[in-house]
From TrEMBL:
Protein name (database record): Aldehyde dehydrogenase
Keyword tags: Oxidoreductase
One of the record's GO molecular function terms: oxidoreductase activity, acting on the aldehyde or oxo group of donors, NAD or NADP as acceptor
Homology family: Belongs to the aldehyde dehydrogenase family.
Length: 495
């Protein structure tokens, strides 16, 4: 049956309350427990999510395992066509999904949430077109032997997604896994369970039952059992370093492959020959101010040449001050809210810490004056200058609208500052000198490096980090082949 459009996100959230999606159907949690999902803009409940536990995981994985065999036996191009069709249908629901993710995440509809819903659809279409690349090789081993390799799916994939960009990060796990012939069990983030559940509901119109299943719940009670389940043969996780280590240990016990994307403290180098206006605009986008800085790739360490530093800071402050904070569902809103009270308290603590560490605080924009939003998780963007490189605000991932601006004299100094981090996810350099750009891209210690731009994750751009930022790559053909298939070598003796 076609899924009817519902453009009222409040109605939609209520309709998705209290259930998982397993074997193509909504089902209540075995334990009967639910938990409130709050609108971070008002602090009010918008619905109740199912609180999954080990029994729900067992059910979902059993169903996924049973469905995977026949799914893998379908021709790869047929699987690809179905996944691409999912993308085309999801594209028809962009406005609906954008409003729902704005409601439960607090991200502004116009600047963030609707864009994310569009990229979600595009990612499924992109991977659907790669099905023909699931091919092996012939190997010139011996003229009397026919030697070849094939690609085979790993089995049941456990996908654990975060709350900051749940649609995109679900897509870059689910789409390649499905095209490669695997079945998937998704564990959603407890703060944003409804939009990804809606996506899976929409996709059930096209996919065979049991191929894609989704659970909601908390990490220890639901995520842990999913990672540890004996029939889960691959885990793809995005989240914190601390939780990533826990996932890695559990996967290691089973000796299964794991993909981890764990965050960053990304540098942005602005050279003295940079186009200042473009660099300032790049800092606005790169710092993800319209996402309240809640991004793994946020350019939270901005390194500016001393010749441009003061003018850069002045222009950056003007641009951030012009951004409007407000109701995420209002089309005029540029900046929404922090995800929840706990994260807001963490961000505010770092802002206090920055002042205590001697940095100069520039608090920008303005809190909304609507009394309906008085209990929302709003935080004014902050730019710190005069930051010490060894301070906590300079080294630890804050995951909020807090940027540190540093002053440097030489290119070598900038590179040393940029690489002086435990993280290595993303980096950018802004310059009009080709040699400077090429040297920077070679020497910057990050998995995703850009020059004179600051794009977010896109289909067909290999994405992932080094150091504490994680293991593996996503959003590319490489990720589908290397992370969601096994290579089998076959030798036929013809003598």
């Amino acid at each position: 049956m076609p899924v009817e459009m519902e453009l009222d996100p409040f109605v939609l959230a209520k309709s998705l309350s209290g259930v998982h999606l397993i074997d193509g159907e909504f089902v209540a949690p075995v334990n009967g427990k639910t938990f409130d999902v709050l609108n971070p803009a008002t602090g009010k409940s918008i619905g109740q999510a199912a609180e999954g536990d080990k029994d729900d995981v067992d059910h979902a994985v059993m169903v996924a395992k049973a469905a995977q065999k026949s799914w893998a036996e379908r021709p790869a191009r047929e699987r690809g066509k179905l996944v691409a069709e999912c993308g085309r249908v999801l594209n028809q629901h962009v406005d609906e999904l954008g409003k729902l993710i704005a409601l439960e995440s607090g991200k502004a509809l116009r600047t963030e949430s609707r864009v994310e819903a569009s990229v979600l659809a595009d990612m499924f279409v992109f991977y659907g077109g790669l099905a023909s690349e699931l091919k092996g090789e012939t190997v010139p081993f011996n003229p009397n032997m026919m030697t070849m390799t094939t690609r085979e799916p790993v089995g049941v994939v456990g996908a654990i997604i975060p709350w900051n960009v749940p649609l995109l990060l679900m897509a870059i796990k689910v789409a390649p896994a499905l095209v490669a012939g695997n079945s998937v069990v998704v564990k959603s983030a407890e703060d944003t369970p409804f939009t990804v559940l809606r996506v899976c509901q929409i996709m059930q119109q096209i996919l065979p039952k049991g191929v894609l299943n989704i659970l909601s719940g908390f990490g220890p009670g639901c995520g842990g059992p999913l990672v540890e389940h004996k029939d889960v043969k691959k885990v793809s996780f995005t989240g914190s370093v601390e939780t990533g280590r826990t996932v890695y240990r559990a996967a290691a016990e089973k000796l299964i492959p794991v993909t981890l994307e764990l965050g960053g403290k990304s540098p942005m180098i602005v050279m003295d020959d940079a186009d200042l206006e473009k660099a300032v605009a790049g800092a606005i986008g790169g710092m993800r101010f319209t996402r309240q800085g809640q991004s793994c790739t946020a350019s939270s360490r901005i390194l500016v040449h001393e010749k441009l530093h003061d003018e850069f800071v002045s222009r950056l402050k003007d641009r951030v001050n012009a951004l409007k904070m407000g109701n995420p569902l209002d089309e005029s809103t540029d900046i929404g809210t922090i995800i929840n009270a706990k994260q807001r308290a963490k961000v505010c603590k770092y802002i206090e810490l920055g002042s205590e560490e001697g940095a100069t605080k520039h608090e920008l924009s303005a809190l909304p004056d609507d009394p309906e939003l008085a209990d929302g998780q709003y935080v004014r963007p902050v730019i710190f200058t005069d930051v010490k490189p060894d301070s906590r605000i300079a080294r630890e991932e804050i995951f909020g609208p807090v940027a540190c601006v540093f002053k440097f004299k030489t290119f070598e100094e900038a590179l040393e500052l940029a690489n002086d981090s435990d993280f290595g996810l993303a980096a950018t350099v802004w310059t009009t000198n080709l040699k400077t750009a090429l040297v920077a891209t070679k020497r910057l210690e990050a998995g995703f490096v850009q020059v004179n731009q600051n794009l977010v994750v896109q289909p067909n751009l290999s994405y992932g980090g080094i150091k504490l930022s994680g293991l593996g790559r996503e959003a590319s053909l490489e990720s589908m082949l290397e992370h969601f298939t096994h290579k089998k070598t076959i030798i036929l003796n013809m003598e």
